UniProtKB/TrEMBL annotation:
Gene3D superfamilies for the chain: P-loop containing nucleotide triphosphate hydrolases
Biological source species: Prunus avium (Cherry)
GO molecular function, one term: ATP hydrolysis activity
Keywords for the protein's UniProt record, in alphabetical order: Hydrolase, Magnesium
Residue ranges constituting the ATPase AAA-type core domain according to the UniProt record: 206-289
Protein name: AAA-ATPase At2g18190-like
Database matches in Pfam families: AAA (PF00004), AAA_assoc (PF14363)
Protein encoded by which gene: LOC110773714
Amino acid sequence: MNFIMEQLVLLISTALNYLATLFSLRRYHHDLTLIIREENWPPNQVYDAAHLYLPTIDLINPSTRTIRVTKTPRQEAVKLATESGEQVADAFEGINLNWRYVVEKHPSGCVEHRFELTFQKEHKDKVMTSYLAYVVRRAEAIKQESKIINLSNVYSDSEVEFEHPATFETIAMEPGLKQKIIKDLERFVSRREFYKKVGKAWKRGYLLYGPPGTGKSSLIAAMANYLKFDVFELELDSIESDSELKSALLSTTNRSILVIEDIDCSVNDEERRYTLSGLLNFMDGLWSSCGDERIIVRAY
């Protein structure tokens, strides 16, 4: 009797293993894996986006063994990240997806970092056209939410954290004018396709006029804090030529505010080393179209 039971258990176990193998093979033949490698130049936008996006979904699942935890002095909270070999499950419009982070050291000594994204082949088109675009958009939003604003001089490699306390809630300004500025800023940052469609550089200019102490710097700080834009300061007295004006503009980054102060003193200076046409071209000509989502503030 015991022999019969042992044979029955063995038969059932063999059948289950066979079915599991068939299921595994069937799944293998119906799955597709995308390899998303880290690239130095130009950077792989999808790889960088995955690094930001994955920690926002649930990293802890039954198969999770290790999670990397980091925190810098400038961060308010700890950050979680996947370790090599760990898998993260995600879902998008009814599609189940599986991310796997891999760090592989080759015999040559070079180290390869990559993500492997696995899903059923039938969803390839939606994953390629919709899901990956969604991941990139979410990463951009995450980057902006956690962005630390920096203050720089266009001729200095160093930068400091911009901690000006001024916001649109704290500055003294006529309420109607304040709302008008806020709406104008929101309209500007949301109209990328419009600027592209009409063939104009995606930039915005503001002219601030008033004696010292009237709140020009506070308004600029409020704009930077509201948009989370870096701030670059340009001192025209240090400009040697028109070519340096161009270099100054090229040194600024996208999503930034360029502040040109005391422009009236520089324009009226007979000993200035750049031309007025060069300054105008710098602010509104061809060179001003280099880069996206930039605001130029001229303070008088």
